[in-house]
Structure formats: structure tokens, C-alpha cells
């Protein structure tokens, strides 16, 4: 038990002790300085990591199961999980699946088997996802156009598309999610595989919401997307393209690259630059490439 002198010493230093405890508690909740967005190089596919200043973690798509036909190792185990661990990510609060093409969702089952995931959010194609994840105990939610998710006090994600999920559509791209990430004064537009038809609808309905500092070229930079009018409306400072080296689709298409060039938008590509990392303090963007282009 405490002696009298011990109690007197505790009283004497109680304010100091309370201050130390307060600093410790505060340090737990203090945010990091930067939002981090990483477009991983997963070959011909999409996988984007988001880590907010308050350590909320998201993944937009999981890429294909294999990096390429010439690289047989599961890219979730060889690329995605090592990248998450390298960035001190021990779990994912959300995985967004923009649509159920294999180059966007092929790694989902492996990732759920190897990594802790709190929930999955998708465009409405819940049935196909339920079949793939083999009854793993991860809740799946549908997100609708104009739904807003507050990731932390300074970071939100807004869904802009699809305006209405069409389960009968044979073209999954038309049902792809479009997500706008807002962090203070900075914003990122992630476009999945939307095509010109989707772009025109977005221009008609949400033109005032489209301007973004960073824009992902839709559908890996294919010729069916990123029309000049859509690019003009988004007003990006930087364009990101996720595509595989020497892919059979010849993405990105020369017309897409020319559209970006004509509007003076810097282009960063995973096939020539490797993984692309952007840090933001909410006022500025800081870009880093894994490798420098030799093309």
C-alpha cells in the first residue's frame, strides 16, 4: 500500500502525470500529415490503395489473379499484400469493387483469405461477389450514386456512378463505379472502366462535381473512354493510367494519350512508371514513381 510520503508525492506531481497521460491519449488520435494514394502495378488491371491521415484504409479493386500470362505467381500474394504491409497497413476497412470483371476483382478471394477486411462495397453486383468469396464472413454493401462515405474528419468518398445499376447489362463496364475521393482542398476521381456513354451521363448530371486534381483515365486508357469533353470538365493536374506492359489490348490508346497531351495534362502510367504514389496534405500533391519511364 502507499505510504504517506508516496501520497504526497503523487499529489505534488499529479498535474504532470495527468499531462503525460493526456499526451499519450492524444498521440493515439493524432493524424498523420498526409493522405496516401497508391496505384499499384498489377499488370492489366486496377488496384488502388488509399490510406487516410487517420489511418483509415481502403482498396479500390483487387486487380487480376495473375500479373500476366507469363508470370504465374498470384499477384495478391506477391504484389498487393507486400505493398500493404510496406505501408504499415494491417487491415482494410473497405474494399470497393468497381465492377466484376476479372482484371478488377480477380484477386478478391485470395485477398480475403490472406488479409483482414472489414467490408466490401460494390455497385450492386452482390450475388457474383457472394459466390466468389466462398461464404467468408465479410459483409457486402451496395453503394448508390451520390452516397457519401466519411472516411475520417477530413476525407470523404462520393459515389457518382452508376446512376442506376442494370443487372441485365451485358457490358459490365457500363455499371462500373465512379468514386471521388475528397481530402480538404484536393480531390481524386477514380473511374473504373466507364465508357463514353457513362461520361456523357456524368457530364449531364454531375458536371459541377467532376473537377478533380487527379483523374484516373477510364478503362485503362482505352479508345472508348476519356473524351475531350470529359477531360475538359474534370480539369485534372495529373492523369493516371493503370495498364499492363505490352498488353494485348494496346492500352493506353494513342487517341487517349493525344487527348491528354493536347490539354497539357501530365501522364503517369503503371506500365512504364511502375507503382504510382501520391501524397497530399490537402493543399498540394507530391508524386512519386517506382521506376522512371524509358519509353
Notes on the protein architecture:
The chain contains ten helices and 19 strands. It starts with a helix and ends in a 6-residue tail after the last strand. The protein is α/β, with parallel strands linked by helices. The radius of gyration is 22 Å and the shape is globular. An eight-stranded mixed β-sheet has the order 10-9-7-3-2-1-18-19, covered by helices on one side. Strands 11-12-13-14-15-16-17 form a seven-stranded mixed β-sheet. Strands 4-5 form a two-stranded antiparallel ribbon. Strand 16, helix 9 and strand 17 form a beta-alpha-beta unit. The longest helix is centred in the first third of the chain and has 16 residues.
Number of strands: 19
Q: In this structure, how is the largest beta sheet organized?
A: 8 strands, mixed
Low-confidence stretches: 10-29
| Global Rg | 22 Å
Q: What's the end-to-end separation, in Å?
A: 74 Å
Mean pLDDT over all positions: 88
Percent strand: 25-35%
Q: Compute the number of helices.
A: 10
Tell me, briefly, the overall form: globular
Strand order of the largest sheet: 10-9-7-3-2-1-18-19
In terms of structural class, how would the helical and strand content be classed?
alpha/beta
Helix content: 25-40%
Topology as H/E string?
Answer: HHEEEEEHEEHHEEHEEEEEHEHEHEHEE
How would you briefly describe this protein structure?
The protein is α/β, with parallel strands linked by helices.
Features:
eight-stranded mixed beta sheet; globular; 29% helix; 19 strands; alpha/beta
Amino acid at each position: 500500500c502507499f505510504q504517506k510520503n508516496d501520497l504526497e508525492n503523487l499529489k505534488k506531481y499529479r498535474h504532470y502525470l495527468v499531462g503525460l497521460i493526456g499526451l499519450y491519449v492524444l498521440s493515439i488520435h493524432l493524424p498523420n500529415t498526409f493522405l496516401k494514394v497508391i496505384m499499384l502495378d498489377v499488370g492489366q488491371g486496377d488496384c488502388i490503395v488509399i490510406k487516410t491521415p487517420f489511418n483509415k484504409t481502403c482498396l479500390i479493386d483487387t486487380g487480376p489473379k495473375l500479373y500476366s500470362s507469363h508470370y504465374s505467381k498470384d499477384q495478391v500474394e506477391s504484389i498487393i499484400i507486400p505493398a500493404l504491409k510496406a505501408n504499415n497497413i494491417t487491415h482494410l476497412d473497405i474494399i470497393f469493387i468497381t465492377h466484376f470483371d476479372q482484371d478488377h476483382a480477380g484477386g478478391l478471394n485470395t485477398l480475403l483469405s490472406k488479409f483482414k477486411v472489414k467490408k466490401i462495397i460494390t455497385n450492386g453486383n452482390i450475388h457474383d461477389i457472394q459466390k466468389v468469396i466462398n461464404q467468408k464472413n465479410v459483409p457486402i454493401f451496395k453503394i448508390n450514386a451520390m452516397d457519401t462515405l466519411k472516411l475520417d474528419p477530413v476525407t470523404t468518398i462520393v459515389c457518382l456512378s452508376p446512376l442506376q445499376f442494370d443487372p441485365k447489362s451485358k457490358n459490365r463496364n457500363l455499371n462500373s463505379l465512379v468514386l471521388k475521393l475528397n481530402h480538404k482542398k484536393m480531390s481524386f476521381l477514380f473511374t473504373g472502366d466507364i465508357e463514353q456513354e457513362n461520361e456523357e451521363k456524368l457530364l449531364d448530371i454531375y458536371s459541377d462535381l467532376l473537377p478533380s486534381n487527379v483523374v484516373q483515365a477510364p478503362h485503362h486508357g482505352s479508345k472508348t473512354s476519356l473524351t475531350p469533353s470529359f477531360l475538359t470538365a474534370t480539369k485534372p493536374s495529373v492523369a493516371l493510367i493503370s495498364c499492363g506492359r505490352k498488353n494485348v489490348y494496346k492500352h493506353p490508346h494513342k487517341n487517349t494519350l493525344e487527348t491528354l497531351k493536347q490539354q497539357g495534362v501530365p501522364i503517369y502510367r503503371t506500365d512504364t512508371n511502375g507503382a504510382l504514389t501520391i501524397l497530399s496534405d490537402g493543399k498540394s500533391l507530391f508524386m512519386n514513381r517506382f521506376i522512371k519511364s524509358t519509353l
